[in-house]
């Protein structure tokens, strides 16, 4: 998890989704995971009408940023926790364009199953 290979698999899984709501999303999400085994890890995902790209590091134009500790990231990736619950419990800090995030909340809904599928494959 949180490697370039993992991120590439996540982008491929999301891009291959049959979910029509994912195909309507146009949103760039920055993720920052603190206290990972290798230190802080940042990566971004850009949803563009069905195509999902991403890379390690910081996006130049992220619409929203999610910051969480490693334990929360692992729980989200394993579908043990969803983004909304993590936010409500104070485990996830969200900054940026909240209106655009709410308009494109299907991106968050798609992340959980995609991350879980990757975790179950590996």
Index terms:
alpha+beta, 5 strands, five-stranded mixed β-sheet, 122 residues, 39% helix
Termini separation (Å)?
10 Å
- Beta-strand content bin: 25-35%
Structural class: alpha+beta
Main sheet overview: 5 strands, mixed
- Nearest-angstrom radius of gyration? 13 Å
Strands in their spatial order, largest beta sheet: 3-2-1-4-5
What's this, in brief?
The protein is 39% helix and 31% strand. The chain is an alpha+beta fold.
Topology of helices and strands:
Elements: H1 4-15, E1 26-36, E2 39-48, E3 51-56, E4 64-69, H2 70-77, H3 83-88, E5 92-96, H4 98-103, H5 106-121
Parallel strand pairs: 1-4
Antiparallel strand pairs: 1-2, 2-3, 4-5
Helix pairs in contact: 1-5
Description:
The protein is an alpha+beta fold and 122 residues long. Helix content is 39%, strand content 31%. A five-stranded mixed β-sheet has the order 3-2-1-4-5. β1 (26-36) and β2 (39-48) form a beta hairpin. The longest helix has 16 residues, at 106-121. The N and C termini lie close together (10 Å). The mean pLDDT is 89.
């Amino acid at each position: 998890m949180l490697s370039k290979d993992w991120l590439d698999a996540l982008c491929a899984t999301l891009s291959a989704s049959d979910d029509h709501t994912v195909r309507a999303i146009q949103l760039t999400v920055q993720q920052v995971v603190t206290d990972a085994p290798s230190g802080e890890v940042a990566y971004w995902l850009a949803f563009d009408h069905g195509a999902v790209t991403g890379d390690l590091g910081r996006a130049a134009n992220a619409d929203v940023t999610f910051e969480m500790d490693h334990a929360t990231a692992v729980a989200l990736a394993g579908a043990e926790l969803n983004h909304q619950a993590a936010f409500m419990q104070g485990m996830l800090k969200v900054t940026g364009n909240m209106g655009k995030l709410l308009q494109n909340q299907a991106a968050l809904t798609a992340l959980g199953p995609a991350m879980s599928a990757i975790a179950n494959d590996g």
